[in-house]
């Protein structure tokens, strides 16, 4: 009933909705409405009550609304099981534990906040409460372990395309899977896997999207290198819609990949890349490599052409755009 009351307020945001109207449309008594409004207030929703006008929803806590997420979700597998948490150390840790207790492919874990969000290469991932999509997804692709880089690139394509669909921003992919808007990072992907007999047993795809963070939500040291969708688009973005869009994109691309292999994904990645044909630098164990990022190979490695015309492949790590 609380959810239905909220839906009524969302039909005409800013407006007063009278107790009489709520009572008529939801077929409940005025006393019951008052009780539900009090429950919603206790859960962080702020209502203004005015005599003869009714109630107005002034602000709502940004909490995951699972019913909103599930309504309109047309995927067959992804997101069919959703686990939502408040503060967790990392959704990755929870997803690994869920797999151990039998969670099926497509299970997703969402948290409001991560206290020890994990990034690639041992870095931390800034995950403040209520402002982002901190999500882990269970996949069980029956492919060899060395296909992992391809799945990483596929995830970046799905994420980039879903953000393009939901927000008016110019976004591109920096190899392998950082999403950048005007050179600043807005989203990152961390794939963790477990293999058996050289095949993947399962993969946990960790997706971090800085959705509604404001500049002051970032620590000083991140302000020049990170941004959010709200900062760049100038408007708040619905986290539920974005997760839906991502799950649809991912499911379609994943099916395409299982059917036709990496070639079509590679083309899509290349079209979204802000890396190719640009000068880059990377730090290999043998020392720094500089050159022009040329293309992706069949495994997902980045081919770089150095100043003396040598072709060097980069299989993992990070690159800097120069
Ligand atoms: C990167 O370094 O770019 C990858 C960042 C991945 C962050 C996401 S947030 C949800 C999931 N849980 C984590 O602890 N990390 C990933």
Automatic annotation (TrEMBL):
Alphabetical UniProt keywords: ATP-binding, Biotin, DNA-binding, Ligase, Nucleotide-binding, Repressor, Transcription, Transcription regulation
GO MF assignments: ATP binding; biotin--[biotin carboxyl-carrier protein] ligase activity; DNA binding; transferase activity
Any GO BP annotation: regulation of DNA-templated transcription
Binding site for biotin: 114, 118-120, 185
Any one GO cellular component localisation term in the record: cytoplasm
EC number: 6.3.4.15
InterPro entries: aa-tRNA-synth_II/BPL/LPL, ArsR-like_HTH, Bifunct_BirA, Biotin_CoA_COase_ligase, BPL_C, BPL_LPL_catalytic, HTH_11, Transcriptional_repressor_C
Pfam families linked to this entry: BPL_C, BPL_LplA_LipB, HTH_11
Keyword Lyase: no
Residues in BPL/LPL catalytic domain copies: 72-258
Reactions mediated catalytically: biotin + L-lysyl-[protein] + ATP = N(6)-biotinyl-L-lysyl-[protein] + AMP + diphosphate + H(+)
Keyword Thylakoid: no
DNA-binding region: 19-38
Segments traversing the membrane: none
Family statement drawn from the similarity comment of this UniProt entry: Belongs to the biotin--protein ligase family.
NCBIfam families reported in the protein's UniProt record: birA_ligase
Its biological purpose: Acts both as a biotin--[acetyl-CoA-carboxylase] ligase and a repressor.
Protein known as: Bifunctional ligase/repressor BirA
Upper taxonomic lineage: Bacteria, Bacillati, Bacillota, Bacilli, Bacillales
Gene name in the database record: birA
């Amino acid at each position: 009933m609380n959810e239905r009351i909220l839906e009524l307020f969302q039909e005409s945001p800013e407006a007063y909705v009278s107790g009489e109207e709520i009572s008529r449309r939801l077929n409940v008594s005025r006393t019951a409405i008052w009780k539900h409004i009090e429950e919603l207030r206790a859960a962080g929703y702020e209502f203004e009550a005015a005599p003869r006008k009714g109630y107005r929803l002034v602000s709502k806590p940004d909490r995951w609304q699972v019913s909103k997420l599930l309504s309109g979700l047309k995927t067959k597998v992804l997101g069919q099981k959703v686990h939502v948490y408040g503060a967790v150390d990392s959704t990755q840790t929870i997803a690994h534990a869920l797999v151990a207790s039998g969670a099926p492919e497509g299970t997703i874990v969402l948290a409001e906040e991560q206290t020890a969000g994990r990034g690639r290469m041992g870095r931390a991932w800034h995950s403040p409460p209520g402002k982002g999509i901190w999500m882990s997804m269970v996949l069980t692709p029956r492919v060899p372990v060395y296909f992992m880089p391809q799945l990483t690139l596929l995830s970046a394509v799905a994420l980039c395309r879903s953000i393009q669909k939901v927000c008016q921003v110019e976004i591109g992919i920096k190899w392998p899977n950082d999403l950048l808007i005007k050179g600043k990072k807005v989203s990152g992907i961390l794939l963790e896997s477990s293999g058996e007999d050289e095949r993947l047993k399962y993969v946990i795809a960790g997706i971090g999207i800085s959705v509604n963070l404001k500049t002051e939500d970032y620590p000083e040291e991140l302000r020049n290198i990170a941004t959010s969708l709200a900062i760049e688009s100038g408007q708040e973005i619905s986290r539920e819609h974005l997760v839906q869009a991502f799950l649809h994109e991912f499911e379609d691309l994943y099916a395409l990949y299982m059917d036709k292999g990496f070639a079509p994904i590679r083309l899509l990645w290349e079209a979204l890349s802000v890396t190719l044909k640009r000068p880059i630098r990377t730090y290999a164990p043998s020392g720094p490599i500089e050159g022009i990022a040329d293309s992706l190979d069949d495994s997902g490695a980045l081919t770089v052409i150095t100043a003396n015309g040598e072709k060097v492949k980069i299989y993992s790590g990070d690159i800097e755009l120069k």
